[in-house]
Amino acid sequence: MTDNQVAQGILYIGADDKDLDLFEGQYAIPEGISYNSYVILDEKIAIMDTIDARKTNEWLDNLQTALNGRQPDYLVVSHMEPDHSANIRRIMEMYPDVTVVCTALAQKLIVRFFGETPASNQMLAVTDGDTLSLGEHTLQFFTAPMVHWPEVMMTYEQKEQILFSADAFGKFGALSYDDPEGWACEARRYYFNIVGKYGAQVQAVLKKLSGLSISKICPLHGPILDDNLGYYLQTYNTWSSYEPEDAGIFIAYCSLHGNTEEAALKLASILKSDSDVKVATADLRRDDLHEAVEDAFRYDRVVLAAPTYDGGVMPVMEDFIAHLRAKNYQNRHVGIIENGSWAPVAGKVMREAMESLKNITIVEPIVTVESTVKPATVEALKELATALLNISH
Ligand code: FEO
Predict the structure, then answer these.
(1) C-alpha of residue 83 to centroid of ligand 1, in Å
(2) Sign for the pseudo-dihedral over CA of 93, 96, 99, 103
(3) pLDDT (tens digit, 9 = 90+) per residue, 54-106?
(4) What region does 24 belong to: left with phi over 0, alpha with psi -120 to 50, or beta?
(5) Cα–ligand 1 centroid distance for 261 (angstroms)
(6) Nearest ligand 1 atom to alpha carbon 166
(7) DSSP letter (8 states) at residue 135
(8) 98 alpha carbon to ligand 1 midpoint, in Å?
(9) Given the CA of residue 81, which atom of ligand 1 is nearest to it?
(10) Each residue of 314-364: pLDDT tens digit?
């Protein structure tokens, strides 16, 4: 097998992007990202998605090398987000006989993105269970609406039992980056921030795929997954059902002058000294917001600590809660620490915001820091720590 060979007749032709600072204009990717694309060489040839415009030249070089002078017959479009679709029109112009295979909604989006496409190219709309024979390889299509856009579909190649999974099972990080944290850490940040809102739709797709025998998963970002696939499928099942992945307590805090931070870190140290529970913290003012969202989903208990500000809560906490709401946050126990010098209301604001989400249980007592941490505050933090540790799972 060559380096880029995924299976017999199936080649990887994607590219790493290590210079982009923000993916989708918002997610920090210090270790880059890969835009994956594949070619299936058979009696007929299928290109499995294009890639982001930033890496067009590298991708076209890889494509030409893989084609080795042959002409592609099909371009399979899994997803119309520009990190995968940017070169659709270019392929249609380069290969007037290429048939574009995608869902009916993707066809509409192709026109929205590219205007009228060359008349010479045919469009083949497919839906659940449809198959397309390339010769020895047969593609079978499964719609995957909202994983992560409505037009998405996955493709199962029957001979090699490979699932081309679109964004699902993808992660941040270039392929050339050997992630010491393995797949889960950056796959989790990717999942909850990009797909997190659509757990029910992910569950529906997992159910749809459950009868397939899968030997490899080829996502549109990150490494090809080819061993222990049950682990990845089970992890996606946990994430998409909004169940916590780990027992532990995540403390997300912000602070104006250090007093709320002191209380939050004091709670962390009480928890650690009283138990061997996993405790993670994030300073919402400085740490990566999207990692904080990821950790809020990862653990079964969360504590929010913030001062009162302008008759509400410090804006960075408001923003964090808005992110949780947007991602359908639910099914967790939440502790609250507030601070206020003359009219503390942050606790009430945070409580109401969190109680408006599904199946959120507020853990009593809500701790009020009156300006600074004093012995009475520490006693209240100890009570909160005990209550958090008494929650059984
Ligand atoms: Fe990788 Fe939803 O695009």
Answers:
(1) 6
(2) positive
(3) 999 999 999 999 999 999 999 999 999 999 999 999 999 999 999 999 999 99
(4) left
(5) 36
(6) 1
(7) S
(8) 23
(9) 3
(10) 999 999 999 999 999 999 999 999 999 999 999 999 999 999 999 999 999
